[in-house]
Amino acid sequence: MLNHIMIGSGDIEKSKSFYNAVLGVLGAGEPMAHVNDTGQTRLFYIHDGSTFSVSEPINGEPVAPSNGSTIGFLCNSPEQVTEIHDVAIANGGTSIEDPPGLREGSMGPMYLSYFTDPDGHKLCGIHRPA
């Protein structure tokens, strides 16, 4: 259903350092960097058939994370859910909500971790047991 997700960054180099570490946990390599026709730098992390992008805002306005939005990164184990969280925190992210771990709910058991990137975008690591 999705081709890509793109978020804004107020400091593209800081975002690159953060996402290189965090997405490296999932096996993503270095991003493809591109400067668009109007001069904004964009980073494209292409991995397993999808693309996660980080861009300087095209309209020149400050970055503002969306209230109520979360970007979830699929993890292959409960341990990877914890690892992506810990790597995010070690690279300038902020831990939010409950500590990484199992959550029981109406949608079944899930291992989750929640954190923000340096620009305040809400992210999570998620693993659904078989």
Beta fraction: 35-45%
If helices are DSSP runs of H or I spanning 4 or more residues, what is the number of helices? Answer: 2
Number of strands: 8
Estimate the global geometry from the Cα principal axes.
globular
User: From the alpha-carbon coordinates, what is the Rg to the nearest angstrom?
Assistant: 15 Å
Q: Element order, helices and strands?
A: EHEEEEHEEE
- In the sheet with the most strands, the strands line up as 1-4-3-2
Unreliable spans are none
Mean pLDDT: 95
Query: End-to-end span in angstroms?
Result: 22 Å
Q: Please describe the biggest sheet, giving its number of strands, its sense, and whether it closes into a barrel.
A: 4 strands, mixed
Structural category is: alpha/beta
Q: How much helix is in the residues? A: 10-25%
Compact summary:
With 130 residues, the chain is an alpha/beta fold.
Topology:
Layout: E1 4-8, H1 12-24, E2 32-35, E3 41-47, E4 50-55, E5 71-74, H2 78-90, E6 94-103, E7 110-116, E8 122-127
Parallel strand pairs: 1-4, 5-8
Antiparallel strand pairs: 2-3, 3-4, 6-7, 7-8
